[in-house]
Amino acid sequence: MAMGGTRLRLLFLTLQLLLISSAKITLRFPSPAFRPESSSSVSIKSKLYETKYYTQILDHFTFTPQSYQTFQQRYLISYKHWGGAKKNAPIFVYTGNEGDIEWFTQNTGFMFENAPHFKALLVFIEHRFYGKSIPFGGNKDVAYANSSTLGYLSSTQALADYATLIIDLKKNLSAVDSPVVVFGGSYGGMLAAWFRLKYPHVAIGALASSAPILYFDNITSEYSFHSTVGNDFRAFVHMHVSLFDTGKCWRRSESENCYKVIKGSWQLIEDTAEQSGGLDTLRKSFRICKNYISAGALVSWLSTAFIYTAMTDYPTPSNFLNPLPAYPVKQMCKAIDDRKAGNNTLEKLYSAANVYYNSTGRATCFNLNDDSDPHGLDEWSWQACTEMILPIGGNNADGIFPPSEWDYAGRAQSCEDAFGVQPRPNWITTEFGGHNIQRVLKRFGSNIIFFNGLRDPWSGGGVLKDISKSLVAIVAKEGAHHVDLRFSTPEDPEWLKHARRREVKIIENWLSQYYHSSSS
Amino acid sequence: MAMGGTRLRLLFLTLQLLLISSAKITLRFPSPAFRPESSSSVSIKSKLYETKYYTQILDHFTFTPQSYQTFQQRYLISYKHWGGAKKNAPIFVYTGNEGDIEWFTQNTGFMFENAPHFKALLVFIEHRFYGKSIPFGGNKDVAYANSSTLGYLSSTQALADYATLIIDLKKNLSAVDSPVVVFGGSYGGMLAAWFRLKYPHVAIGALASSAPILYFDNITSEYSFHSTVGNDFRAFVHMHVSLFDTGKCWRRSESENCYKVIKGSWQLIEDTAEQSGGLDTLRKSFRICKNYISAGALVSWLSTAFIYTAMTDYPTPSNFLNPLPAYPVKQMCKAIDDRKAGNNTLEKLYSAANVYYNSTGRATCFNLNDDSDPHGLDEWSWQACTEMILPIGGNNADGIFPPSEWDYAGRAQSCEDAFGVQPRPNWITTEFGGHNIQRVLKRFGSNIIFFNGLRDPWSGGGVLKDISKSLVAIVAKEGAHHVDLRFSTPEDPEWLKHARRREVKIIENWLSQYYHSSSS
């Protein structure tokens, strides 16, 4: 059974472009050959929400004939625990990000688990141009054809979609006075934070998890992303069961060796590939299926594994991007540091990659040229070519890749080649700000929680310090990418339980303040 | 010398549509035959600012090929009193409204007069599609041709224009840390308030003068506008020189008669027109030139005079819409109440209209079908057909017109006929809010002054109560439309001086808070 890896363009990763320009090698992108939707998540889906569609306008900000076109926007809704319109019970809305909304919904257990406590209606809105929310008659061939149609895929249009849909939904439910709290992770977290800032009349607060709203326009160092990946492999986290304690605790272990082996792997692969018979050696070492191999494709395949494992280094087994064991970084480093495996570095790297690509143990070989897109994330490449210019490509001495600089010109050229479009690299900070955020928002805005886990490579672009009493940063040193939003498990460590309790507490405060203001 | 009257579509007045649907008569719109730009304002223009152009993008919110088109956006700039980039001296920006920016600039003396005190750079940005800021190659024939091009005329695009231009200008001046305060009156005041709410990272505060941001979506009564006009003619204001006081003071006088005569005039005109030779009687009474007359045109011409005189009932002689004496409402009522003039009501109404149309005394007859547009305001009719759906058309018992209801269907049909476009009546509140503004902004946002004069028919849609410590309402009972922004005169009453002093004080506080935050 052959398996690939979740592709790199995933989750606003535009690494393919970065690697092209830094490593000067041509890359292709592997992708998993199966959907990581477990049978349990399928049952969540069928039980926990209904699927609905809303007739959405194509362009909120102009009034051309084209702008009046409509499309069907999908949203998922769960009334199960809602206290109802008469009681002005709250509405929790997930501001969908760059993929199929069912996938994000199934990975946002926090909302389901807290709905009973808050008596909240749950709504998960799909982002335009993703999943089943496709403009131009739902026809992807048309919608994705070129910039004339893709041009309507933008963050500002998505936010206006959410405002429009929420207002209309509340009217239809006779629930105009029900307070709305928005939630989102990653790009969805950016949207949640921006939504609260731009539409305070629609949402009373936002939980923005792992939202790198400062990873634009040189606010955050271009080296931060890959440095964090490097640091994750230098100091991994694992569960520690003590003979003397009654409970469990987590522990941090150092492994300079693990980091160095990974950092050296890129050169090793290139050197090996250049030797006579080298590609065959690589193919055998990494169990690559017979169809396609190149040094570039292998580098991409391997870097995908390391980066996404760092991003999703969750404390319990998970199945977000790929099925993974608890603390997968630790598992990778264990494979790399294994003394019994001798000096065969390629074999050790394969064992590490196996943690990401083959935790089930069912794969016998891997495809490097698998181009499938199980979560419907492909159109992020359009967003990364227009407004979402996050300069994550640089590597300094701490980076997981050889030293390199973020190459804007390379990105622009790739975008010109792929879409015939020019990026607008300053647009996000023009529209949403980011520079001097402490000064700007100190006396402006309220009710946003910025959660960040410091093991998450994106965390460098997050808000890591409180801005004001009600613009709050929750920072989990041992946390990964929006770990707080995931379904809880009995094995969750104390720091994670604590972060979620704090989030619940803060949201309770927003709501009681709202009800107090309404009655006074 | 023939003169007409400033046309009714002026200053987001869409009265033509309202009157069409309520009075069921066809109206045409007169307009002045000269530009009310006095020789003194020409000298202001040539001395006080330079004219510049900025290459602006056509559509900020999409990435279609069309969206990348650019146009030349005009702005006026005065460095005269600027303290300079090195000192982070402030930048005062006027967010231009629906007309030629020179005209608004010349009527915004407040910024010129306070520039020396604040050492402020002054910038007045023209709104897209007005004046000389015309997309599509600056060609009005193309830009105004139909909804495919006019579609890019919208408030959100205008706000994004301002953000883009200001950020770029600051970069070019090496003044990225200079704080920006925005100013605007009327629709420009709405834009100023919304700009602070949507772009807090660009402007530290806003003075929004006579900005009816609540005149949307039934937040404010549809009767408010015409009731205020009626009340203005019931109780006019004038200067009172007391023999016993050393100074001057203003006084309010009642005149139920003045209001009743005006309110009865519409029927009187219709009745007269229906009599044999009636139109000739009307022509003679109102000194209408030989070319065109109808009851509808005369009603429009006369209502223009009453409404705009109420709106601009300034305490000193002015030349905003037309040249007017101080307290022009009083002058009109004086004519109507004049006992010496006997019982000839038409003659009295003519004398009142003469205050608005002929304060110079140079006109010998008036054109009703003058269609010129001296301030370049015509495209407001597009905005009033798309997003700016201000339901000002109703008349209750207090209204200046016969009882009538605001007729949305009539508006929509007119817009369909004129432009083939459907209004989006809920869009403004979706994008900018307005409902429950006290609750929504009580703990969100800061640093906006909402000035309103209660004699201004628009004031009913303004923010008339403080929302929080830094979202402040300044209400001048005797004030008219953005009177605070006008050049001061030695004759200004104390309430006006007081309002301006308060505004200056508040802006000083914003700036000192900003400098304090920057240094800490």
Automatic annotation (TrEMBL), chains A, B:
Similarity remark: Belongs to the peptidase S28 family.
Keywords linked to the UniProt accession: Glycoprotein, Hydrolase, Protease, Signal
InterPro entries named in the record: AB_hydrolase_fold, Peptidase_S28, Ser_carbopepase_S28_SKS
UniProt KW Repressor keyword: no
GO molecular function: dipeptidyl-peptidase activity; serine-type exopeptidase activity
Organism expressing this protein natively: Coffea canephora (Robusta coffee)
Signal peptide: 1-23
Record has Glycoprotein as a keyword: yes
GO-annotated biological processes: proteolysis
Protein name: Lysosomal Pro-X carboxypeptidase
